Amino acid sequence: AGFSVGVAEKSAIVDGSTIAEGDVLIGLPSTGVHSNGFSLVRKALFEQAGYTVDTELDELGGEKLGDVLLTPKIYVKALSPLFKAGVVKGVAHITGGGFIENIPRMIPDGLAAEIELGTWPVLPIFDVLEKAGNIDHKEMYNIFNMGIGMVLAIDPARKDEALKLLADNN
Asked: How far, in Å, CA of 90 to CA of 34, rounded?
């Protein structure tokens, strides 16, 4: 298990309260399942499909399933410069509950997010899970991050600045 801890001045805490209509959402890529949905992962891949952690699947580029499932991602280095520059108005870590539960948590009452499916690559592990567990495609977005591990709300006037800071920090 892993986690990150930080300290912030109360005035610098990003709580989503300044999110406004027209702000843009930027999705940061995940490296895979991360830490959410592992009860279903175990059931679908190990119980139903009969795979093991050593199973190598062509769909996963020949990597061992266990390695793919345990690929970590911590966003601190990528996000710190954005927080320091004050460009982030809201942030949602896409964990258990997928998009449906996590993105609304950062958005003030009276607003909603519009997300265009297909505007980012869904990682192969999610296709493997969907097929092995016979999981409804839409339900996958209720459970998993589907290739987006973090979503940021940004003022559209600062979108290019945010994207540059992200690119500069890989």
From this structure: 21
